[in-house]
Amino acid sequence: MSKKKGNSADLAPSRHEKKGFGQIVLGFFLLLYTLFCGLPIVLVFIAAFTDEKTITKNGFSFFPEKWSMAGFNAVLKYGKQLATSYGITIFITVFGTFLGLLVMAMFAYSISRKEFRLSKFLSVYLLIPMLFNGGQLSGYIVFTSYYHLKDSLWLLILPLCVSTMNVIILRTYIVNSIPSELMEAAKIDGAGEYRTFFQITLPLLKPSMAAVGFMMATAYWNDWQNALLYITTDSKKPLQLLLVNIQKSIEFLLNNSNVPAAARAAMGGNIPQYSATMATVVVVIAPIMVVYPFFQKYFVKGLTVGSVKG
Amino acid sequence: MKGFLENTWKHRAHVVMALPAFLILFFIMYVPMAGLVMAFKSFDYTKGIWASPWNGLDNFKYLLASKTTFVNMTKNTLIYYVIFTALGTFLNVVLAIAIDQFMFKKMAKTMQTIMIIPVFISYAAVQFIVYAFISTDTGILNHALGLSTRFYSTPSMWPAILTIVKMWNSVGYGSVLYMSVLAGIDTALYEAAEIDGANKWQKIKHITIPALVPMITVMLLLSVGNVMRSDTGLFYQVTRNSGVLYSTTQVIDSYVLNAIFKNSNFGFTAATSFFQSVVGLLMMLFANGMVRKIAPENALF
């Protein structure tokens, strides 16, 4: 990149100036697109701190008339449920990601060994679910009426645990970036298969696992669908389900115009309104936004290493 | 065969290491495949999938007879796939080239970080952001324009709304892959072109874009396999699953999700799922075949 900069400096002044203007225009459009991506998220944070009456009167705004902490106070009133949901989401994200990384790395390692003849069959076995799958309905019926896992946290963990694409990314990394001489040397030195994997391969696989792990963690953190399908007990509800349920209660309030005004006003104190809803959104999305910049370099690199190569 | 068994026994450690993922795939992915036989049965919850009586192709006849629902959701699924893929690919490439051409690299990096963030926000949260912009009474758009458009009950507006939301969500992230290709272009090519008197546009047209073509082709072909699948959250959450909007917003995946919640119409839904899976398989085989012809090193199998 710096090389290109050097070239532009060598050019005649007039052309250089022209280039400078082009850069400004380009920068302007990039900035516009950045704002398009970023401002909606900023709005969530602003709305979470906006006074409720200001929203009902003036609508959502980037420059609210009056600020307020009421939204966050209302969120804290969920208190126990919010803490429980946070705990569930963190548990699922951490446990699921580590479990998935471990079993996928082991599988990827096994099918990457050329001397292991069963690996051909296992590769095909891995690929088939990507081509063909049973769909949501039969999954739902199998999981609930045959495995009897309705309302079990396993259904939040296992369906996102092993994915063909992630195994392929890990395998590609093992094949292309970890010299098999290292593994052979370890074996000559007397290390068994397991020790070779855990002490040689796994540590070297870290960059790729960081990329895959971050993608998995966000998938776990953001999963609302399995929670909505399977989880019914309050004590097992993850954060995303809390979000979905808030929407339901607002809709209930809005759609039931035949509820007497007095009764609605009485309920008003308990039902989360605009600012409280936005405060909940903040609580749910903030952790990812804090963690993401630290992982960006890994996933940009890790994704480009192996994504489409088989 | 004996050699094969011996080899497997010798490498039993690999078998043990592959086993956990093997079992998870088996119970989560493979068993539900067998559940697709439901499409040929008159499903009864109390009897389960296997004991329910067969009813031949009745479910599929029902499917074809119900023009409005089935045809409509299939049509929506396909239309959104085409819009999202065409526009998405175009914007991914434009953004990748723009960031690559921008010389203030630190600033470009920060911008890119912000552009990627939306992909990490769940649609359960995104729907509230969309609501803040387009709700009738409190939405920013209506207040700014002094209107009272009822977005949530006007189906004709949703193709545009969903496309904007989808692009907001995915373009920043999608461009990363193309940027990695651009980073790999030999700078000597640009230098040679400059010596030959090429200007910026000519360089983009004759060096940058041709370098991206293989990746574009591969990504397009691979996406063909998912033609029947949609971003369920986009169509279920962002539209608030509003029945008024179904004519332009219901896709196969969101229909199936609704059917599960309503606990109804399992025969019809099973037939739809079967259709979705089989078309997906055929398209995937077709796409892979094409990739193998054009760029064999990128084929999946």
Write the layout of secondary structure elements.
The complex is a heterodimer of chains A (310) and B (301).
Chain A: H1 2-10, H2 13-48, H3 52-58, H4 70-78, H5 80-112, H6 119-131, H7 135-146, H8 154-157, H9 164-177, H10 180-188, H11 193-204, H12 206-222, H13 225-230, H14 239-255, H15 261-268, H16 274-306
Chain B: H1 2-10, H2 12-34, H3 48-51, H4 58-65, H5 67-101, H6 105-116, H7 123-134, H8 140-145, H9 158-183, H10 187-195, H11 200-224, H12 232-236, H13 246-249, H14 252-262, H15 266-294
Helix pairs in contact in B: 1-2, 4-15, 5-9, 5-11, 6-9, 11-15, 14-15
Task: Explain the overall architecture.
The complex is a heterodimer of chains A (310) and B (301). Chain A has 310 residues and is mainly alpha-helical. Chain A has a domain at 76-238 and 277-306: MetI-like (MetI-like fold), CATH 1.10.3720.10. Chain A has 16 helices and no strands. In chain A, helix 2 packs across helix 16 (274-306) and helix 12 packs antiparallel against helix 16. The longest helix of chain A is centred in the N-terminal third of the chain and has 36 residues, at 13-48. The two termini of chain A are 30 Å apart. Chain B folds into two domains: 1-31, no CATH class; 58-298, Orthogonal Bundle (MetI-like fold), CATH 1.10.3720. The two termini of chain B are 24 Å apart. The model of chain B has no long low-confidence stretch (mean pLDDT 91). The chains are: A mainly alpha (310), B mainly alpha (301). At the A-B interface, helix 1, helix 2, helix 3, helix 5 and helix 6 of A face helix 1, helix 2, helix 5, helix 6 and helix 7 of B.
